[in-house]
């Protein structure tokens, strides 16, 4: 995560621009902030971040700082984020439990005296980080803060509570240790952020294997496996290494697709499926599929360059309309999609929001192009959408619903939209 945060320094003006400077020219400031924001949005797609942006001392933000974060912190946004910086040498820090909410993890780094950089993500993302070896299904994995309060646990009901006393008594005060007693085999590893990865497995589970192997061999094998899972480096590599599996796959998809920040078909569907299927019913999502109409005619009756400009136009429209999205992708030559989140918790408000955005796509894309031989050619985009969990209970139902809505809209007339409800 810390390495991903440093990528923000590759953005021009990100670490020099100061939104609090009263001498800023208003027009130049708007352009500078837009350029910074656009680049940060591209970077934050490398992981499923809630926030990836800059907060200034006047609470002005640039980049992806979610509505939820603004509502949670309110007027204390900059002040309380600044309080999360605990390391003087590197001017950064990790934090969780803000407002007694342990479902979000924050990483904050000072950029200059009036600005800081904030990344946050949900602790549920750690399900993809901590994976038990196949032969240790009974092992429990926990991530705690410096006070041994649980940030993550493979036992979901423990989130935010204190580490069980039967485990704490063996590892309290230790940075790197493995201990076995009559109840548990426990290991602890301290991360660079003063948090602890703690793994445990009941001793009786291990002893069941003693019939076929000597005890000391079993213990040695289990200790080695636990230490491998618990190593802090695993946490860093799997959650945020910019050259790791997730981001390298994403980079390949972006290069293959040709539009930076737009995922290819396979990666978009995998990522959006993972997000929807992990969502609860209160975590509403909308899948919106947009298709450029008459695309072969644009190529054949005008030229390929004009067709490419229509693709670029669609990407620009998507960026303008859908700002707070989980991911966006290209499903086919002339078909794009976004998985978007609501700005309001109310079902009716979200349906209205999706309806408005679909209508905007249709309106903004309409254009008349001049052809070489047949006068003008009208271009349009047809849109289909589905809402989770209103339109379906899992990703496949949502995806199929959006496709059905798209086909229904095309049957109605091209350049229209439908929402599957």
Automatic annotation (TrEMBL):
Matches recorded under Gene3D superfamilies: 3.30.70.270
Domain (GGDEF) ranges: 283-421
Keyword tRNA processing in record: no
Keyword Transmembrane: yes
Xref: SUPFAM superfamilies: Nucleotide cyclase
Listed transmembrane segments: 215-236
Pfam families: GGDEF
Alphabetically ordered keywords of this record: Membrane, Transmembrane, Transmembrane helix
Name this protein carries in UniProt: Diguanylate cyclase (GGDEF) domain protein
Organism (species): Ruminococcus albus 8
């Amino acid at each position: 995560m810390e390495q991903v945060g440093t990528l923000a320094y590759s953005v021009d003006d990100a670490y020099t621009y100061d939104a609090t400077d009263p001498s800023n020219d208003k027009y130049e400031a708007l352009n500078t902030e837009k350029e910074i924001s656009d680049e940060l949005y591209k970077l934050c797609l490398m992981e499923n971040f809630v926030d990836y942006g800059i907060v200034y001392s006047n609470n002005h933000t640039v980049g992806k700082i979610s509505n939820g974060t603004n509502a949670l912190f309110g007027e204390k946004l900059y002040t309380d984020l600044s309080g999360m910086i605990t390391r003087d040498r590197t001017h950064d820090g990790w934090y969780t439990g803000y407002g007694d909410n342990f479902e979000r993890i924050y990483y904050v780094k000072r950029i200059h005296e009036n600005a800081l950089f904030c990344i946050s993500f949900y602790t549920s993302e750690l399900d993809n980080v901590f994976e038990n070896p196949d032969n240790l299904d009974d092992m429990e994995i926990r991530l705690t803060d410096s006070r041994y309060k649980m940030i993550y646990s493979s036992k979901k009901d423990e989130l935010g509570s204190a580490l069980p006393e039967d485990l704490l008594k063996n590892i309290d005060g230790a940075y790197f240790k493995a201990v076995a007693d009559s109840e548990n085999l426990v290991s602890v590893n301290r991360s660079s952020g003063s948090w602890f990865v703690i793994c445990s497995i009941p001793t009786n589970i291990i002893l069941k294997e003693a019939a076929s192997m000597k005890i000391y061999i079993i213990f040695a094998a289990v200790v080695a496996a636990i230490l491998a899972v618990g190593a802090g480096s695993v946490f860093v590599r799997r959650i945020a290494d910019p050259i790791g599996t997730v981001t390298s796959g994403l980079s390949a998809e972006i290069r293959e697709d040709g539009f930076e920040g737009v995922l290819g078909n396979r990666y978009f569907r995998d990522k959006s499926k993972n997000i929807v299927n992990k969502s609860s019913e209160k975590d509403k999502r909308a899948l919106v599929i947009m298709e450029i109409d008459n695309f072969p005619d644009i190529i054949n009756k005008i030229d390929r360059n004009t067709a490419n400009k229509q693709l670029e136009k669609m990407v620009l429209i998507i960026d303008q309309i859908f700002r707070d999205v989980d991911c966006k992708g290209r499903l086919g030559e002339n078909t794009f999609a976004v998985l978007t989140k609501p700005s309001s918790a109310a079902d009716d408000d979200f349906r209205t929001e999706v309806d408005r955005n679909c209508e905007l796509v249709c309106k903004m894309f309409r254009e008349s192009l001049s052809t070489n031989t047949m006068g003008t050619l009208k271009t349009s985009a047809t849109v289909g959408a589905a809402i989770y969990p209103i339109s379906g209970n899992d990703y496949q139902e949502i995806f199929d619903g959006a496709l059905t809505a798209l086909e229904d809209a095309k049957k109605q007339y091209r350049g229209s939209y439908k929402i599957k409800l």
